[in-house]
Amino acid sequence: MSQTPQGICCPAPRPVPVEGPPAAGTGGRYTISEVAERTGLSAHTLRWYERIGLMPHINRSHTGQRRFSDRDLVWLDLVGKLRMTGMSVADMVRYAELVRAGDHTYPERRRLLAATREDVLRRIDELRGTLAVLDVKIAHYTGNEDTPAVSEEAATS
């Protein structure tokens, strides 16, 4: 689960299909509701991303409606993956600013992504330890004789 701008729990965004041609009839331009449906993000979240600078400038139709491009969908896919890493919104916005600033920011982008990668690896190690505890407990409750009995205290330490 992830947090919306208001802090309400919601499912993590779905991966955005970016392979192949644009959806029929879109010409590679999507309304906010189409993007919301494709990504699992709410229209409110998409507007918020734009307002805080996480999304690049979104083109508008002659009536002022947002028109997202295929490139925007690719960016949203990356943002979804960065969210899944646990990267803070502030760091995601900083990364977006660096991308917009140009190629000379590669070293800083690399440092930001490398630090996030290290955080992910630490969390994976923590989760592996948690998984091991669960495996011991499940084996205990299923009566698996191959697994030595472990006390509650030992399994949680």
Structure characterization notes:
- By secondary structure, the protein is mainly α.
- The protein has 2 domains: 1-101, Multidrug-efflux Transporter Regulator, Chain: A, Domain 2; 105-157.
- Helix content is 56%, strand content 8%.
- The chain has helices spanning 32-39, 43-52, 70-85, 89-101, 106-141, 152-156, and strands at 2-3, 9-10, 29-30, 59-60, 66-69.
- The strands form 2 sheets. It has a 3-stranded antiparallel beta sheet. It has a two-stranded antiparallel sheet with strand order 1-2.
- Helix 4 (89-101) packs antiparallel against helix 5 (106-141).
Element layout with pairings:
Layout: E1 2-3, E2 9-10, E3 29-30, H1 32-39, H2 43-52, E4 59-60, E5 66-69, H3 70-85, H4 89-101, H5 106-141, H6 152-156
Helix pairs in contact: 4-5
Outline of this structure?
The protein is mainly α and 157 residues long.
Notable characteristics:
about 160 residues; mainly alpha; Multidrug-efflux Transporter Regulator, Chain: A, Domain 2; 2 domains; two-stranded antiparallel sheet; 6 helices; 5 strands; about 55% helix; flat; disordered N terminus; DNA binding; MerR_fam
- Strand percentage, roughly? 5-15%
- What is the CATH top level name of the largest domain? Mainly Alpha
Strand runs, count = 5
* Number of spatially distinct domains: 2
Instruction: Give, in order, the helices and strands.
Output: EEEHHEEHHHH
CATH topology of the largest domain: Multidrug-efflux Transporter Regulator, Chain: A, Domain 2
Q: Strands of the biggest beta sheet: in what spatial order?
A: 3-5-4
Region (Disordered): 1-25
Keywords: DNA-binding
Domain HTH merR-type: 29-98
Organism: Streptomyces alkaliterrae
